[in-house]
């Protein structure tokens, strides 16, 4: 029997927005809406499926749903606040846990909390083709809830996406310049092992901190959203959240598994840790 765990809405948000059109993979995500069918039909989280109950209220999983092959299994109801509750989400999670090989995650706060945070991920659409799943808009991953996001250059230039997410500041690490309605600070840095990010870590980190401390949202972006922007995000977490390199690396990797600062940036992050902490805490060969 799989373990049942609570999960914050941001965890589901990041699962829905991982790069590479993952939602089109049939065994990537099983997202179950455990609310009443009429509530589901009114509005639900994108790609979620509804499930029926028998005459005794026991949840019945569709035969076509191969839960045991899924990498991620997530369930939500209207507003469950704890996995100790006797709620529809927990009742459904118990049924899922009997067949799942992955932990079953229960979204804390349910649809009410998730949809309040991410209004743009609600829908009435029930069925998707593979092509539609592949073409779903992908949003930047969330590093700090409601404050800090990491994405690619295409996302940083998408005006409708930026409005939906209420992004106030874009930190763009690219040789390309860009204009928009948001404040854009462009640092012209190549994704090369010889490029110098270290010398601008202090300035960027303080700029991000001053913005999010005012309650505004920041998007850190680079062309592919993997190397430069993840290095800067890690540097920020090390300085302003007092994380070691290992802790910051793990946090960002958990949100965006395909992130990877190049070898030169990793060396600079080692030096940044030494500068901030007075000693090296992280064995980078284990990262």
From TrEMBL:
Single GO molecular function: protein phosphatase inhibitor activity
Recorded superkingdom: Eukaryota
Sequence ranges assigned to domain Tyrosine-protein phosphatase in this UniProt record: 139-278
Biological-process GO terms, alphabetical: negative regulation of stress granule assembly; positive regulation of intrinsic apoptotic signaling pathway
SUPFAM superfamilies documented for this protein: (Phosphotyrosine protein) phosphatases II, Rhodanese/Cell cycle control phosphatase
Annotated Rhodanese domain residues: 29-123
GO terms under cellular component: mitochondrion
The name this protein goes by in its record: Serine/threonine/tyrosine-interacting-like protein 1
Name of the encoding gene: styxl1
